[in-house]
Amino acid sequence: TEQDLERRFQARVDAEEKIEPKDWMPAAYRKTLIRQISQHAHSEVVGMQPEGNWITRAPSLRRKAVLLAKVQDEAGHGLYLYSAAETLGTTREELVEALHRGKAKYSSIFNYPTLTWADIGAVGWLVDGAAIINQVALQRTSYGPYARAMIRICKEESFHQRQGYEIMLALAKGSAQQKAMAQDALNRFWWPSLMMFGPNDDESPNSAQSMKWKIKRKSNDQLRQEFVDQTVPQIEVLGLELPDPKLRWNEARGHYDFGAIDWEEFYRVIKGNGPCNRQRLQHHIKAERDGDWVREAMRAYEDKRRGREAA
Ligand code: 3HC
């Protein structure tokens, strides 16, 4: 019966077995994985926009080459994750269609503008820093293709974070104006980076089930706390002011305490009313349409090749 199948499935998950595409899985497990993996892929692709915005304006050839390499990596991560989602019986076209119809999300953080070059440092350091903490945990997710995608992606992400931190270090140790730019970028990206980890655990509708199915291995609040504990010492090395007056080490807890997150802002942004939501989606829709001729050419070529083979 269905109950027996579900029981056997849960026993496999509890025994830390990897679930593979051809294995039986509850429909709801498949559904939530398509939701999460596709939104992860959308995040990687949309995340190319704020950084891409500065490729032509990087302050040196080296910075330009490094940023170009990072943005190309994000594209690859996106395509890798769409392939992982396709193993669950969906198609890339469906996933992109859902994004364009506002039915699928991408990470809130990419709805904030990159106003100065220091923002590119803050994005690499804070956003990729947060993404790495989330993705390292996801290397142990119960669905095989997703876990393997994470292992590969995490290898590339550490360079992303290091190049961002190096930009921040150069600015923070530079002129007064450069240090002020770095401080401004930290102030604007700090809270949105904390929001990347999702709502508090008791406000998170998907967490309980995702933890039971070991899709999620650490909770939103656990990962957020790890990020804060790792990043505050880095702010001190930069010699910048803490972006939250309530940030302070709590010896008893062995963690940093920090102030309240503005969840109003979070829900406003994920509902589509953040600073750049409309432009990010319009840009993605246009890029997709501009690429139609490439997909048509590939299909025509494939048909011809098949035709030749059949003949
Ligand atoms: N941005 C947008 N939506 C968010 C969000 C965020 N930062 N945090 C949570 N949400 C959404 C969830 O998707 C969910 O909505 P849905 O049911 O329509 O999908 C709702 O808010 C409630 O959140 P939950 O905590 O209940 O949802 P999850 O259990 O899915 O947890 C998550 C949210 C922690 C983001 C989880 O989905 C996850 O770990 N996803 C994979 C990681 C990911 O997407 N990372 C993108 C980071 S950016 C990146 O990787 C690019 C980097 O290389 C720069």
Automatic annotation (TrEMBL):
InterPro entries: Aromatic_CoA_ox/epox, Ferritin-like, Ferritin-like_SF, PaaA, PaaA_PaaC. One of its GO terms (cellular component) is cytosol. GO terms for molecular function: phenylacetyl-CoA 1,2-epoxidase activity. It comes from the Bacteria. It is an enzyme of class 1 (oxidoreductase). The keyword 4Fe-4S does not apply. Its EC number is 1.14.13.149. Keywords: Oxidoreductase. The keyword Transferase does not apply. GO terms for biological process: phenylacetate catabolic process. Gene3D superfamilies: 1.20.1260.10. SUPFAM superfamilies: Ferritin-like (SSF47240). Pfam families: PaaA_PaaC. This is 1,2-phenylacetyl-CoA epoxidase subunit A. It comes from Exilibacterium tricleocarpae. The lineage of its organism: Bacteria, Pseudomonadati, Pseudomonadota, Gammaproteobacteria, Cellvibrionales. The gene is paaA.
